[in-house]
């Protein structure tokens, strides 16, 4: 059991730390079983470097023999990549800039053997306790006699100290003198009252350093490393003492951080907008990185320029074709620019890699490579609030693991490159023993290599810049951007020039020079006041939406909560073992990897957690987010994650690792929406034209179609209804745009297919887009039946797309794969990819894929399910075509908006809804009101409630269809299964019984099973309704209604999960939203809500909105069964209207 030390520490003593409240920032270090003599010698010689504040029990013997000392001196370097520093040589020679001094110190250091990491330690009671911070523990000690103080072993030697090796800079691994606090009060500028979560007490904090330019607010979270302890109640951060990290759980990218050293505003734009795009230097850099890392992974017998060139041609060039097309660079020209880099890579590897690949010559810092610890090493540090990927992690022959950063630019002294490596050094020290080893920079253009030696002041300067970045990155508002540079010399070359100047007009900076203000005004002169207002609203709403989402689904929980707690919240699966690893493509050395995880105890995985195509982070007990990937396959007992690379060597070698998968909430869709808003403000003819239609609401126009074309359409669309033909004519004659409103079951997909078929016949090009991958895939599969497959191209997609056998040949990778062996790959790819008249992709991919950067504009852009798309998501696709057609139904589901403020202000108004009145007046709107799905009893509900009686059956056959079944013998049912009269209603083939509302009477006597819906923070369920619906489903299946013809749905995800557990196998159960565009012969709807389930406003305003109810009522073809409490539901206006139109309300009693 952990025993806290209640003695009040003096000014020179660290305040005791309780590890139970420290987030799991990094891993603990554990030295495996050693002899008592080895333990003593190691711990005495290394007493200043016991990681994370560890100390020793006083019962360790102090008489080490000379033989034991020699034995420890002979120990080899640690395999775990953890770093240690000896007790001697406290004044570090690196400060004086002498590499030889550092090398001699390393040579005099006895490395440790068998070092591994853990996130648990053994408490005084002998039980494993959860460790949420790092510490050095020695296995084999008597756990019963080693007292623990807040996760730190007591009675350690007085000289024990964790040291960074840099005078004036604290160890980032010493949790004993760290504080994780929130600001409670602001006394004065840079004087605060804080509450330390670790020690559970208040402190006064004084910021006395010129480096602090971030004003803290009440509630701001901070981490302090070794602050000056003025007295037992007062801490200070001075120029020489301590480091403060503001909002440490906000991880700033290391590459973005170094941008801030030149222009903080551009760095924040990079974090929030993340614009796509490439240039020749970026592309060369990516290729060189890939080749360098492939050589390290594969270790060819002979390394040469020829080997690299062959690898480039065979495996990289085919994937690079699109980038070269966008850059308008031929493969031959690119190779010519690449060759000098290959020569330098070859020379470096021959010189410095260990044999047999190289000659193991010393690096520029004097050390020698022992092995490669990891490639593309992913680190998330909630200690200093930085994340990054280290190109190569090298383990040298002294057992130290150091970062090697590859650069393809000029080798002139560059503070950005230097700063980036410094952050890697800091993060790696935090994960190990806190000692700051130097790193390396390798410039592949000329082969120059430079050591990067950390100094206290430059580290503090960079972290101060990081604090300022975190303040801006964490505030998702239109005005949360740094002031622009005073000079405009570099602005015209910046990829964020439009972003910067537009936002200067929308949210004027506090400090801006006249030169910069005039520049911004000049660059935005083409925009009218209404254009700026539109951009202001949509940028503001997008930020509001992002802010709400980040609070609900924050990736910060990975630091704040244990893996078990996160799994209970439904975002994580833990206690996993790595069951299998294999290449996704066994024929390619550059293949991604499939990592299969299973429960260590072989138990089933939790349902509905981590679904197909979810992005996940992979963590171990050692470290958070060691890798990321995408869920590629999911079964009850296993989950397969597709990752770009294998796990690091240290992880692969440890088969006892416990893995955790966390759903990663990507913010990329918010960045894409923000960029889309900026796109409509650009000074281009296509953007100006779109502004007229979307912002100014200029009425669209139509051309007159010649009689010959009209006759041609009539003959080729004989199977379509008159309204469907009218929709096609409206689209073909549109000069700017046309809208097609497809009522439920009205055949809008058939209309789109016929339209595209006709456009292809006319020689037109078409971009088909929708908000979801499934909608795009379904449309292309339908088109494949009438348009030759060689005319169809799929850009992007998810796991379902890649696994679909019929989609495989249409994908971009498959198409480019057809050019394998081409001697003119880029030219042939251009010709091939331009030849496809029909291209399908999602709205967001259309605005972010390099294919669309060089391809000529499409004649038509068709957006399916347009009423589901945010305006900001649809802008970029519309800019890719000369005219557009929006297809959807504003009376069904609207765009998903979670911010109440943004929704009420207008964010949920789709572009289709916005343009509908204007298009109707200009005769550019066609309504498909003849439906081919529901019988007339079901159809009448939706028609009367939502379409003013306009929705009607297309023919008598549709109108009169009823359920078809083989009947059921009552003796095949358990006794008292369901009342006889209810059984009769369920299987009735009278059309008048097609719609049944089963009143659960939750307010009635004896109906307690339905009385209260179980509520969680996110959703609700009603066990009584689940059991009743499961029984009714069983009745239908016993009557030989195919399970595939039956569907159950609910507005609540929790209810859906409960239904899936009980309904017969083969019956599809989903939320109402997931059922849009789908149908079944029989649909059963669970409304869940009762008078005791609470949150009536949420129920009426969103969960059961008119549009969502419309979708629920229009999925059934022949039988619609609604289940809920009439008394509880009729308080909502839309439900009251529905109940008034349902002819059959059955009063159900569970007794």
Describe this structure in a few short sentences.
Keywords: 4Fe-4S, ATP-binding, Chromosome, DNA damage, DNA repair, DNA replication, DNA-binding, Helicase, Hydrolase, Iron, Iron-sulfur, Metal-binding, Multifunctional enzyme, Nuclease, Nucleotide-binding, Nucleus. The protein has 1151 residues and is an alpha/beta fold. It is built from 41 helices and 43 strands.
Walk me through the topology.
Layout: E1 28-31, H1 36-45, H2 66-73, H3 99-107, E2 115-118, E3 120-122, E4 128-130, E5 136-138, E6 148-149, E7 152-153, E8 178-188, E9 191-196, E10 201-208, E11 221-225, E12 228-231, E13 234-238, E14 243-246, E15 252-253, H4 254-259, H5 264-273, H6 280-298, H7 305-327, H8 331-352, E16 369-381, E17 386-396, E18 401-407, H9 415-431, E19 439-443, E20 449-452, H10 456-474, H11 497-506, H12 514-523, H13 529-552, H14 557-560, H15 563-568, E21 572-583, E22 593-599, E23 615-620, E24 627-634, E25 638-643, H16 649-653, E26 659-663, H17 668-679, H18 685-694, H19 707-716, H20 722-732, E27 737-742, H21 748-761, E28 766-770, H22 773-783, E29 792-794, H23 799-803, H24 805-808, H25 812-817, H26 825-834, E30 838-842, H27 843-846, H28 851-854, E31 858-863, H29 871-878, E32 881-888, H30 900-905, H31 911-921, E33 925-928, E34 930-931, H32 936-946, E35 952-953, H33 956-959, H34 980-986, E36 995-999, E37 1014-1015, E38 1020-1021, H35 1023-1038, E39 1046-1050, H36 1053-1062, E40 1068-1071, H37 1072-1075, E41 1080-1086, H38 1096-1103, H39 1106-1113, ...
Parallel strand pairs: 1-5, 10-13, 15-17, 18-19, 27-32, 27-33, 28-30, 28-31, 29-30, 31-32, 34-35, 36-42, 36-43, 39-40, 39-41, 41-42
Antiparallel strand pairs: 1-2, 3-4, 6-7, 8-9, 8-11, 9-10, 11-14, 12-13, 16-17, 17-18, 19-20, 21-22, 21-26, 22-25, 23-24, 23-26, 24-25, 37-38
Helix pairs in contact: 1-2, 6-7, 7-8, 7-26, 11-12, 11-13, 13-17, 17-29, 20-21, 32-39, 35-36
């Amino acid at each position: 059991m952990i025993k806290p030390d209640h003695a009040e520490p003096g000014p020179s003593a660290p305040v005791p730390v309780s590890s139970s409240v420290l987030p799991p920032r990094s891993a603990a270090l554990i030295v495996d079983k050693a002899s008592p003599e080895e333990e003593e010698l190691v711990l005495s010689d290394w007493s200043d470097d016991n990681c994370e504040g560890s100390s020793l029990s006083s019962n360790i013997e102090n008489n080490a023999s000379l033989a034991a000392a020699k034995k420890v001196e002979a120990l080899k370097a640690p395999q775990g990549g953890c770093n240690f520093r000896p007790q001697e040589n406290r004044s570090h020679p690196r400060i004086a800039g002498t590499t030889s001094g550092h090398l001699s110190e390393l040579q005099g250091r006895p490395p440790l053997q068998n070092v591994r990491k853990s996130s648990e330690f053994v408490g005084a009671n002998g039980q494993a306790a959860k460790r949420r911070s790092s510490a050095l523990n020695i296995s084999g000690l008597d756990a019963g006699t080693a007292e623990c103080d807040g996760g730190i072993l007591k009675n350690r030697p007085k000289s024990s100290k964790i040291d960074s090796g840099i005078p004036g800079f604290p160890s980032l691994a010493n949790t004993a003198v760290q504080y994780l606090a929130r600001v409670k009060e602001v006394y004065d500028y840079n004087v605060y009252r804080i509450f330390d979560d670790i020690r559970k007490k208040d402190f006064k904090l004084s910021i006395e350093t010129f480096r602090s330019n971030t004003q803290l607010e009440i509630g701001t979270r901070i981490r302090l490393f070794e602050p000056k302890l003025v007295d037992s109640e007062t801490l200070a951060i001075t120029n020489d003492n301590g480091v403060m990290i503001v909002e440490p759980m906000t991880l700033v990218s290391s590459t973005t951080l170094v941008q801030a050293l030149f222009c903080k505003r551009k760095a924040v734009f990079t974090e929030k907008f993340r614009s796509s795009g490439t240039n020749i230097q970026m592309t060369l850099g990516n290729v060189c990185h890939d080749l360098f890392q492939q050589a390290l992974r594969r270790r060819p017998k002979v390394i040469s320029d020829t080997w690299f060139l062959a690898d480039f041609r065979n495996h990289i060039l085919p994937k690079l074709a699109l980038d070269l097309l966008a850059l308008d660079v031929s493969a031959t020209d690119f190779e010519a620019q690449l060759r000098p880099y290959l020569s330098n890579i070859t020379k470096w590897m021959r010189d410095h890699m260990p044999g047999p690949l190289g000659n193991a010559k010393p690096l520029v810092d004097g050390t020698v490579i022992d092995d490669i610890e990891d490639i593309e090493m992913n680190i998330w540090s909630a200690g200093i609030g930085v994340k990054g990927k280290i190109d190569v992690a090298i383990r040298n022959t002294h057992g130290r693991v150091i970062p090697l950063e590859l650069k393809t630019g000029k080798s002139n002294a560059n503070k950005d490159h230097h700063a980036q490596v410094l952050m890697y050094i800091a993060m790696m020290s935090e994960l190990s023993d806190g000692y700051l080893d130097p790193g390396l920079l390798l410039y592949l253009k000329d082969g120059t290599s430079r050591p990067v030696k950390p100094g206290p002041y430059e580290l503090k300067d960079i972290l101060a810049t990081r604090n300022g970045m975190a303040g801006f990155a964490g505030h998702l508002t239109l005005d949360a951007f740094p002031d622009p540079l005073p000079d405009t010399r570099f602005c015209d070359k910046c990829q964020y020039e439009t972003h910067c100047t537009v936002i200067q007009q929308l949210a004027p900076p506090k400090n801006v020079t006249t030169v910069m203000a005039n520049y911004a005004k000049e660059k935005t002169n083409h925009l009218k006041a209404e254009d700026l207002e539109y951009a202001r609203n949509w940028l503001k709403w997008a930020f509001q939406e992002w802010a709400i989402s980040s609070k609900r689904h924050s990736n910060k929980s990975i630091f704040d909560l244990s893996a078990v707690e996160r799994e209970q919240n439904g975002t994580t699966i833990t206690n996993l073992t790595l069951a299998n690893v294999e290449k996704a493509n066994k024929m390619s050395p550059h293949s991604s990897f499939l990592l299969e995880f299973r429960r260590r105890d072989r138990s089933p995985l939790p349902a509905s957690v981590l679904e197909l195509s979810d992005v996940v982070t992979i963590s171990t007990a050692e470290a958070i987010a060691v890798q990321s990937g995408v869920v590629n396959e999911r079964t009850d007992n296993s989950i397969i994650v597709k990752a770009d690379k294998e796990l690091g060597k240290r992880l692969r070698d440890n088969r006892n690792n416990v893995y955790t998968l966390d759903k990663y909430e990507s913010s990329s869709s918010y960045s894409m929406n923000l960029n889309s808003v900026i796109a409509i403000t650009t000074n281009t003819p296509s953007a100006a034209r779109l502004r007229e239609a979307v912002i100014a609401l200029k009425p669209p126009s139509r051309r007159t179609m010649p009689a010959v074309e009209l006759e041609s359409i009539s003959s080729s669309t004989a199977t379509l209804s008159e309204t469907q033909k009218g929709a096609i004519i409206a689209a073909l004659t549109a000069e700017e745009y046309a809208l097609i409103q497809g009522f439920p079951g009205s055949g809008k997909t058939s209309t789109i297919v016929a339209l595209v078929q006709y456009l292809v016949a006319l020689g037109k090009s078409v971009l088909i887009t929708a908000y979801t991958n499934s909608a795009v895939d379904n449309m292309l599969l339908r088109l494949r039946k009438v348009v030759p497959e060689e005319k169809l191209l799929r850009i992007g997609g998810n796991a379902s797309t890649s696994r679909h056998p019929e989609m495989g040949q249409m994908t971009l990778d498959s198409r480019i794969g057809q050019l394998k062996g081409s001697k003119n790959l880029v030219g042939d790819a251009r010709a091939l990819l331009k030849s496809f008249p029909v291209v399908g992709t999602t709205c967001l991919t259309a605005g972010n894929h390099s294919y669309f950067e060089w391809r000529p504009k499409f004649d038509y852009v068709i957006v399916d399910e347009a009423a589901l798309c945010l305006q900001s998501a649809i802008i970029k696709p519309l800019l890719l075509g000369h005219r557009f057609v929006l297809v959807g139904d504003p009376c069904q589901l609207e765009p998903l908006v979670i911010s109440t403020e943004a929704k009420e202000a207008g964010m949920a108004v789709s572009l289709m809804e916005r343009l509908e009145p204007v298009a109707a007046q200009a005769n550019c709107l066609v309504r498909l009101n003849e439906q081919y799905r529901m019988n007339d009893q079901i159809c009448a509900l939706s028609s009367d409630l939502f379409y003013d009686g306009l929705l009607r059956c297309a023919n008598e056959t549709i109108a009169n269809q009823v359920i078809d079944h083989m009947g059921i013998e009552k003796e095949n049912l358990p006794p008292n299964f369901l009342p006889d009269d209810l059984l009769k209603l369920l299987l009735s083939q009278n059309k008048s019984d097609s719609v049944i509302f089963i009143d659960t009477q939750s307010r009635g006597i004896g109906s307690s099973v339905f009385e209260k819906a179980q509520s969680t923070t996110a959703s609700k369920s009603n066990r009584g309704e689940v059991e009743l619906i499961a029984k009714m489903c069983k009745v239908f299946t016993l009557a030989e209604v195919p399970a595939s013809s039956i569907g159950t749905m609910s507005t609540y995800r929790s209810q859906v999960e409960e239904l899936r557990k009980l309904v017969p196998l083969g019956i599809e159960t989903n939320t109402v939203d997931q059922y849009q565009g789908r149908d079944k012969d029989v649909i059963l709807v669970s409304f869940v809500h009762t008078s005791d389930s609470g949150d009536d406003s949420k129920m009426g305003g969103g969960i059961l909105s008119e549009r969502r109810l419309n979708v629920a009522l229009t999925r059934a073809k022949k039988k619609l069964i609604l289940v809920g409490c009439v008394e509880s539901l009729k308080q909502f206006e839309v439900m009251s209207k529905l109940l008034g139109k349902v002819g059959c309300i059955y009063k159900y009693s569970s007794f």
